[in-house]
Design a protein that fits this description.
Blueprint lengths: L5 E3 L5 E4 L12 E7 L2 E6 L3 E5 L6 E6 L2
Antiparallel strand pairs: 1-2, 3-4, 4-5, 5-6
Length: about 70
């Protein structure tokens, strides 16, 4: 499952799942999530990092980081 980043509220309810994107490989899960300068980022198997809207799960920006 490549869309393995999910926003959860304080009660454990799923609010959103990261926006689906086409990846280099068929199997390309996100391997890490982190906060940088108060922004939510997720890095995947392709070597890309995506800035994510923490309220909706939409991808705002992509950077190649490998």
């Amino acid at each position: 499952m490549n869309e393995n980043v999910i926003g959860i509220d304080c009660e454990g309810k799923a609010l959103w799942q990261i926006e689906k994107k086409e990846h280099v490989y068929d199997d390309c899960p996100y391997m890490n999530i982190y906060i940088k300068n108060d922004e939510l980022w997720a890095g995947n198997w392709d070597g890309n990092s995506y800035k994510i809207d923490s309220k909706s799960g939409k991808i705002i920006e992509r950077k190649f980081t490998k």
